[in-house]
Amino acid sequence: MRYYVVIPAHNEAGFIEKTLQSLVDQSLLPVKVIVVNDHSTDTTEQLIDQYIEKHAFFTKLNTQSSEDHMPGSKVVNAFNKGLALLDQNYDFIVKLDADIILPKTYFEKIAAVFTEDPQIGITGGFAYEQDQNGRWLLNHPMGKDHIRGAFKAYRKEAFSAINGLRCAMGWDTLDELLVRYHGYRVQSIESLKVKHLRPTGGSYNKKARLLQGKAMYTMGYGLSLTMIASLKMALMNKKPRVFIDNLQGFFKAKNTQTPLIVSNQEATFIRTYRWRKIKSKIGLN
């Protein structure tokens, strides 16, 4: 299968060389890799250039945005700029962070999953992060049917059905909800262990948490689901403030009548799907 990769990169000099090398080492090589150098002020660009000189499938796109390392709209905006340089001659497309080390057979196995089941719309492995003792430990706070936004692979037809990625906090949850709405499945691959070099959530602050609450509103969660999801996040992070900030973001979006980023039909599906998952977890289904 043919696949393209888009890598948003902002000040990733400490990591990006390992990410690009792990692509070069793949048993199934990408056809094209667009590295979006998003307003980097360190040596990220020079490291990208070194790989462009050696490998024809790498292309660099320099772009300007804010210096804030905010999750959500910033990274998707950079991804979309890289996506605009690509044609449609691919079987699956990958959004990859610049602080990732992939196992050598990663995309060979991704291609096999897509080939074997045409109903799989999104797939990927699991993230492992290094602890203080140098051990690589699984860090996957979501359910096993969720693929981390740092390394998502999309079947072309599914990616087209959801009209790409939304420039909003929570995009890497919404994409999975929407592919399910369109009749596709999300399949994780436990055997694919991805090394994530930067600790998860290291750049999340109050502004990000407010945006998380806004995202829950604009995805059509409603208050009850937002409260449940926010409470879960607060307990997982052991930070009660997460719950408060999320709800503040939700009510601010509601009070200003912020438009939803999904249709009414999609919002209804999302709420129904979320409630079904909750009931299943507590044994009511």
From TrEMBL:
Residues 5-145 form the Glycosyltransferase 2-like domain. Transmembrane segments: none annotated. GO terms for molecular function: transferase activity. It comes from the Bacteria. The keyword Cell inner membrane does not apply. InterPro entries: Glyco_trans_2-like, Glycosyltransf_2, Nucleotide-diphossugar_trans. The keyword Membrane does not apply. Keywords: Transferase. PANTHER family: GLYCOSYLTRANSFERASE, GLYCOSYLTRANSFERASE 2-LIKE DOMAIN-CONTAINING PROTEIN. This is Glycosyltransferase.
